[in-house]
Amino acid sequence: MKLLPTLKSHGGLVALTATRCRIAYTLIEVLAAASVVAVGMAAAVTLSSTLMIQEELAWRVAVVRNYQENMARLWQLGIGTGPLAADVKALMPDPSSNDILAACFTVNPSINSIGTTNPSDLGIMERAIVSATVNISLDGDHRIKTAGSASTFYIYRPALPATLRPPRP
C-alpha cells in the first residue's frame, strides 16, 4: 500500500500526515453500479418493445385509413352507382387474398350508399358510409383477430353526375 503525504491545517499550523491511496473498488460499489446498469437495461428493453408494438399498430391503422380513403375517392369519382358499391370493391385489392391487408383488417371494409341529402342548400348530394375495423391482435400468424374500434366516416358526391352518366351497356 502506498502512502501519500498530505498537508492539513490546524489553527494556522500545517501538519504533514500520511493517507492511504485506494487503487481498487469495493465489492459493494461494484454491485451497486451493476444494479444501476441492470435497471437501465431493463427499462430500455421494455421501452423498445413497447415502441415496436405501437409502431405496428400505427402502421395497421394507417393502412386501414388509406384503404378507406381510396374507396371513398373512387366512389366520389362516380364509380359504384348502386346501393352497394360493388364496383368500388372490385377495383380495390381483396384483403382476404393479400397477406398484408389480412393482417390489418378484422373484417373486410365496406362502402354503402345511404341515400341523398341537401346540406345547407348546396343541392342534392349522394351520401355513403365507409367503415372498417383494425386488427389489434399481436398474434404473429394473424389467424387470431382482435377488433379495435371501428373507423367509420360519411362521404358525399354531387347527384348531378349520376343523372348525366349514360346507362351501362
Structure description:
This protein is an alpha+beta fold and 169 residues long. The protein has one domain. The chain has 4 helices and 5 strands. A 3-stranded antiparallel β-sheet has the order 3-4-5. Strands 1-2 form a two-stranded antiparallel sheet. It is elongated, with a radius of gyration of 34 Å. It starts with a strand and ends in a 5-residue tail after the last helix.
What is the topological layout?
Blueprint: E1 3-10, E2 13-20, H1 27-76, H2 86-91, H3 99-104, E3 110-117, E4 125-135, E5 147-158, H4 160-164
Antiparallel strand pairs: 1-2, 3-4, 4-5
**Cα-based radius of gyration, to the nearest Å:** 34 Å
Overall number of structural domains:
1
Number of strands: 5
Mean pLDDT level = 80
Order of helices and strands: EEHHHEEEH
**What is the count of DSSP helices, taking H or I runs of 4+ residues?**
4
Q: CA-to-CA gap between the ends?
A: 103 Å
Looking at how many chains there are and whether they match, the oligomeric state comes to single chain
Return residue spans where pLDDT drops below 50 for at least 5 consecutive residues. Answer: none
What's the arrangement of strands in the largest beta sheet?
3-4-5
